[in-house]
Amino acid sequence: MKKKINSIRGMHDYFPEELTIWKKIEKTLKEVLNSYCYQEIRLPILEPTSIFKRTIGDVTDILKKEMYSFSDKKGNSLSLRPEGTVGCVRAIIQKGISCIKNKRFWYLGPMFRYERPQSGRYRQFYQLGGEVFGCDKLDIDLEILLLTFRLWKKLGIENYVKLEINTIGSLNDRVKYEKELVLFLKKYEYLLNQESKERLYTNPFRLLDTKDIHLKKILKKAPLLKNYINDISRSNFNKLLKMIELHDIKYIYNQKLVRGLDYYNDTVFEWKTNENKSQNTICAGGRYDTLVEKLGENKTSAIGFAIGIERLALLIKSLNIFSDKIENVNIYIIFIGDLNKNYSVNLSEKIRNVYPKLKIFVDFSNCNLSKKIKNAVSFLARIVILIGSNEIEKKCILIKDLKNKTEDYISERELMLKIKTFFKNV
Ligand code: HAM
């Protein structure tokens, strides 16, 4: 028996049926991003490993366990990007940060993390990210939340997602807090599982958003992060919450929300859904005002977000939102006998010249007529054009309207005019 060739675990192929939802999502996302003046940026999938080490954090799960890293022929360590923010910052520094100030970018593409695959969690997944540079005003934090909320509304899922938001203060606040947290948790170290024990000494901050119920109980008595946040950050966060309320966006102030990447400060947020069984965060982001500096440039404030496209598609599919079927084909051309092939191909080219937006399928298969008609139906074609010797002799073409179940013999000239009546905006 031949050995079956499979894709790499956690990396998936997406066929046209699934991409129908993806395309609708992408179209909506791009429209909304455009309306907020975000511009597209395309970035390499491979980056030097060092830039991730300097920014994401040496002791984060991503850096410790999830990177796809390898050496190139010259021995340079390269990594498949696990996320888009760091590469975007590297790119704007390379381009010259001064021309980037107060600019908004978006990108869409695959990211790679060696995680344990399950529904909504993959080793190759797609993110649509948005990043804003050079704006330190709270207004931009609000604008990003308004933008993401608008996306959900346009997609019709605003009632199925909720915003969780927190402030993690400055990096100094974090250091002070981590010291106190470790002191507190050491008393309970014997109760912690192996992973939490390790985190206690490597990345105690991440213990706050643990899923371990024992640790969750212990953390109820732990010092609170909010008591270590500096006055400016705290007051800004309170102002931001008020601004969000004015715009009628419901939120949950989640003091345990800290994010899995080390570059954040102040505002952090996640949009979550209860509909996906696991992996319920569909979008996440926050401020990262020190990241540009960490990569060697002058301090530049920055904030961004990224949406997990697979998770969003799962949610939309489970809600059956885009239930209307999309025509795969507009016009399906069937010819009978090889002698009529040339005429059919020529006709299809003429139609494409006049109606470039239409999808025209010429059936070159050897199937019989009824099989070909069935195929046209399964392709959701609107009209079938049938070319047999009779049709050519009589200079008449049989046109079948599959929607209204009618048919008619017309001349080629009439056909060219009639097509317009079947399709909008052609
Ligand atoms: P992140 O939370 O690591 O943040 O990822 C953002 C989103 O990508 C998640 O909320 C989730 O929807 C999706 N995602 C992450 N990992 C996976 C996976 N293994 N499989 C499927 N989907 C996944 C970032 O990546 C930051 N760069 C976001 C950001 C942009 N912050 C500021 N600017």
TrEMBL record:
A Pfam match: tRNA-synt_His
Subunit structure: Homodimer.
Subcellular location, record wording: Cytoplasm
Reactions this protein catalyses: tRNA(His) + L-histidine + ATP = L-histidyl-tRNA(His) + AMP + diphosphate + H(+)
Swiss-Prot/TrEMBL keywords: Aminoacyl-tRNA synthetase, ATP-binding, Cytoplasm, Ligase, Nucleotide-binding, Protein biosynthesis
Keyword Protein biosynthesis: yes
Enzyme class per UniProt: ligase
A GO term for molecular function: histidine-tRNA ligase activity
SUPFAM superfamilies the record matches: Class II aaRS ABD-related (SSF52954), Class II aaRS and biotin synthetases (SSF55681)
Residues of the Aminoacyl-transfer RNA synthetases class-II family profile domain: 1-356
CDD domains reported in the protein's UniProt record: HisRS-like_core (cd00773)
Organism field: Buchnera aphidicola (Melanaphis sacchari)
Gene3D superfamilies assigned to the protein according to its UniProt record, in alphabetical order: Anticodon-binding domain, Bira Bifunctional Protein, Domain 2
GO-annotated cellular components: cytoplasm
Source superkingdom: Bacteria
EC number: 6.1.1.21
Residues binding L-histidine, per UniProt: 83-85, 113, 127, 131, 259, 263-264
Predominant location: cytoplasm
GO biological process: histidyl-tRNA aminoacylation
Stored PANTHER family: HISTIDINE--TRNA LIGASE, MITOCHONDRIAL-RELATED, HISTIDYL-TRNA SYNTHETASE
Protein family according to the UniProt entry: Belongs to the class-II aminoacyl-tRNA synthetase family.
Protein name stated in the entry: Histidine--tRNA ligase
